[in-house]
Give the backbone structure.
Amino acid sequence: MSRLIVISNRVSRPGKSGNQGGLAVALSQALRESRGIWVGWSGEVTDHFTGHIGFSEDQGVKTATIDLEEQDVDEYYNGYANKTLWPLFHFRIDLAEYARDFEGGYNRVNRRFAETVSPLIEPDDIIWVHDYHMIPLGQMLRDRGLDNRMGFFLHIPWPPTRLLVSLPHHTKLVQALFAYDVVGFHTEEWLESFRHYVEREMGGTVAGDFVTLGDRTIQAVACPIGINAKEFADAAVSDDAKYMFETVSRSLQDRAMIVGVDRLDYSKGLEERFGGYARFLKDHPEYHRKVVLTQVAPPSREDVESYQKIRATLDSLAGRINGEYSDVDWTPIRYVNQGYPRDKLAGIYRSAKIGLVTPLRDGMNLVAKEYVAAQDPEDPGVLILSRFAGAAMQLKDALLINPYSPEEMSDAILRALAMPLDERKKRWRAMMDSVETQDISWWRSSFTSRLSAVRRDAPTVEPEPAAG
Ligand code: ADQ
């Protein structure tokens, strides 16, 4: 079995927190089995970059981390990754900042990773690079003579060509993806946008899963990430989950709870969610005192101005809605800025009659899947889901809405609150089948099996004839 080398901005060490995400669990398992290494930024800042690698091993998972300079963090992480690529790839061209320093820092950090990592890599290793922080890394590793099988997975949407061309040096960024052998996206929609760009802007050709540009042919595939459904369903009946369920239920006093759980990020449509809920309260006074929206939103990326702004906006919006509708014994919005360990989170999901997931754009959205997995099969809640989340391609039995429309959101809340048990069960079963079948292990093996099958000694794979 070839060794797997995972490279991403940050690594997750099993022992560091009892609350590993599904991605971390899935990758840890593959790393353990293949005796691989997970490489990333330590999260620490150093005065001078030395290329020193901090190795550690936890529960059989080896990690290798490097420290970055403050300027690196400003230009690469807070800059190009989170002020340029993240907003642009989430269709927020209005928030995207284009600065040469950012791009310079992004390339410098990727080069630093390439220089540091390449001595660790052996010829038979499989390299799997993750996400928008690391797009040029593969090219930089190839420039250093590495001929390994190399894959890249994008966790966020791929933007339409008309938006992507607003990025200075967009062609160079996309060209870099052709250094990989397999490039993965969550959905057909993101994949189609990628192919469209390559055909229209670069004169490349597409034949089935194969995309050719010049003398490079790569596989570009849609491969939706899942969660560890079984583990999440078990978490929902754990002691911590039960404790949470009881605590929440007691505090609700027979009111129906709607839950939202997100990183505090403008792409998650939180402002629109509060607006849609306010619209529901305005349109349906008969539901006053009978519902509560609990929004759990731990702050993220607090060094970036647009994140400080969204936090201030939500603080004031929650205050305004509560000010307008609260009474001495009822607060319509519970707005909580903290994270919860997985078991407790599962208990919160289970105590909510409605999961309200309304991103304006989302590569996938795992919260939607977690909400489904945490439900009581005998009395499941209803998922209201934005049609602009990647998850909407799979969870077709959710109530799909346009998050920009407060009326649609209000109507969906009304419908969900009144939905008969039979219909709830039927919709939940269909969604749970998808969550269970295309789970995190399925995702990982779908991607890595393609990558393992690549033959680097025969780089020009004969493309299949185009369908149709
Ligand atoms: P994110 O944008 O972080 O991920 P998401 O897919 O919803 O979005 O994952 C968030 C994770 O954080 C979930 O597992 C959730 O349980 C957890 N989380 C959020 N709030 C929490 C809280 N208060 N307490 C504890 N845990 C919390 C990016 C992309 C997504 C894509 C994923 C995976 O933006 O579109 O689905 O990567 O590819």
User: Anything to note?
Assistant: Residues 258 and 354 are 5 Å apart (CA to CA).
